[in-house]
């Protein structure tokens, strides 16, 4: 491990590796990534793997659309051989009230301004896409055929491989113990393997970002919350798109191998770092899923797991320098959509750190909360 670097990135998930690659691509030398376990061991490896462009705020739509373009051309963009298992069979978003349908209409107007090919559907049209869908109580739906899912492990490994090819050093099983600050300026990072002197630190550690920021005396307005997922046995294909309901806080998709992966957003989950699986989740998820897709009642559950959402006040990412500490930056608060935004976020953070003009016209800096420039994202499970 190097004992001196220009930039130290804390977090070896998809966001950290994307940032590392994009910094190196810009010609930034001596970039080091620190991961306390293996790559993708945190939120990245525990996510639902969905990639969608159907959001309610223009900047999330923009970042998702730009990221989708990179997913579609991943090997060409990164100049590597890495199959990321991108499956574009769409996202079908379900509305169960007139209010929700009106929000979908507003969302689609925003999406169309960015050439995202989303459409509004009647319940009958939704059932034509998913014949086994229970359309009881369904008012309407939104659909984008270009949405889908990809393999988060392969995407992360692709970014890591491309970054290393450009000179980035990646240190696994290297835990950060402290960030050394003097006169409000970054001096370096203390790890379990030694000290690294550096001018810049980027914290992209998912649900643990706020804890690491505290090492530098910074309180971030984010919190972490457990979300759970289950996987079923493999069966014949009955579902092409990802199904998602914001009112029922549920998503469900069928993988290329025939298994179903599904999860839901808890209503009263405390802010915690608990990543244990629960029996309550299995019971509730099973009831929600079999109501939504009745054929699922005959399918066996294989396994389940939990991970952390890192949630910001407006459910939009914080991709920002920290004004109080020279050389400190954070990428956090993704609220469950870090994987699908990671390609664009890596570009954005590289712009911020190098002082270049931002590639994307977005307001994701930390100070937006003090300025009152908050537009809450309505489309989060």
What does this structure look like?
- With 381 residues, the chain is of the alpha/beta class.
- The protein has two domains: 4-49 and 153-222 and 313-371, FAD/NAD(P)-binding domain (3-Layer(bba) Sandwich), CATH 3.50.50.60; 88-146 and 223-311, 2-Layer Sandwich (D-Amino Acid Oxidase, Chain A, domain 2), CATH 3.30.9.10.
- The chain has helices at residues 14-25, 43-46, 58-72, 74-78, 98-112, 123-129, 152-165, 209-214, 279-292, 338-354, 368-371, and strands spanning 4-10, 31-34, 50-51, 91-95, 118-121, 140-144, 148-149, 169-171, 176-182, 185-191, 194-203, 223-232, 242-245, 250-254, 260-264, 301-311, 318-321, 328-332.
- Strands 1, 2, 8, 9, 10, 11, 17 and 18 form an eight-stranded mixed β-sheet that branches. Strands 5-6-4-13-14-15-12-16 form an eight-stranded mixed β-sheet, sandwiched between helices. Strands 3-7 form a two-stranded antiparallel sheet.
- Strand 13 and strand 14 form a beta hairpin.
- The protein starts with a strand and ends in a 10-residue tail after the last helix.
* Total helical elements: 11
Shape: globular
- What portion of residues is helical? 25-40%
Order of helices and strands: EHEHEHHEHEHEEHEEEEHEEEEHEEEHH
- Corresponding CATH superfamily of the largest domain: FAD/NAD(P)-binding domain
What is the percentage of strand-forming residues? 25-35%
Total beta strands: 18
CATH C-level name of the largest domain: Alpha Beta
Quickly give the structural class: alpha/beta
Characterize the main sheet: 8 strands, mixed
**Spans of at least 5 consecutive residues with low confidence:** none
What's the Cα radius of gyration?
A: 20 Å
Mean pLDDT: 97
């Amino acid at each position: 491990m190097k004992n001196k670097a220009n930039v130290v990135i804390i977090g070896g998930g998809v966001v950290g590796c994307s940032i590392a690659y994009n910094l190196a691509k810009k010609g930034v030398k001596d970039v080091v990534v620190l991961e306390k376990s293996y790559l993708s061991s945190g939120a990245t490896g525990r996510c639902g793997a969905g990639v969608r462009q159907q959001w309610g705020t223009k900047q999330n739509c923009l970042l998702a659309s730009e990221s989708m373009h990179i997913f579609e051309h991943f090997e060409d963009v990164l100049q590597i051989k890495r199959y990321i298992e991108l499956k574009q069979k769409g996202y079908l978003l379900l509305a169960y009230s007139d209010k929700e349908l009106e929000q979908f209409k507003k969302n689609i107007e925003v999406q169309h301004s960015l050439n995202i090919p989303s459409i509004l559907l009647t319940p009958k049209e939704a059932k034509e896409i998913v014949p086994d869908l229970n359309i009881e109580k369904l008012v309407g739906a939104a659909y984008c055929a270009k949405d889908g899912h990809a393999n988060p492990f392969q995407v992360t490994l692709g970014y890591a491989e491309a970054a290393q090819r450009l000179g980035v050093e990646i240190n696994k099983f290297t835990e950060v113990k402290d960030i050394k600050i003097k006169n409000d300026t970054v001096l370096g990072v203390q790890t379990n393997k030694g000290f690294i002197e550096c001018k810049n630190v980027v914290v992209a550690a998912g649900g643990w970002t706020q804890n690491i920021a505290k090492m530098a005396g910074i309180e971030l307005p984010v919190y972490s919350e457990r979300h759970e997922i289950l996987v079923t046995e493999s069966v014949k294909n009955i579902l092409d798109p990802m199904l998602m309901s914001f009112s029922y806080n549920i998503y469900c998709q069928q993988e290329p191998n025939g298994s179903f992966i599904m999860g839901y957003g808890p209503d009263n989950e405390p802010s915690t770092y608990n990543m244990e699986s629960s029996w309550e989740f299995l019971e509730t998820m099973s009831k929600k899923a079999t109501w939504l897709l009745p054929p699922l009642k005959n399918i066996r559950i294989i396994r389940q797991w939990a991970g952390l959402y890192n949630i910001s006040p407006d459910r939009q990412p914080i991709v920002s320098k920290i004004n109080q500490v020279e050389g400190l930056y954070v990428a956090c608060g993704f609220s469950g959509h870090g994987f699908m935004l990671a390609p664009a976020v890596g570009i954005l953070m590289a712009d911020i750190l190098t002082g270049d003009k931002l590639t994307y016209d977005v307001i994701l800096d930390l100070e937006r909360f003090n300025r009152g420039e908050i537009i809450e994202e309505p489309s989060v499970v």
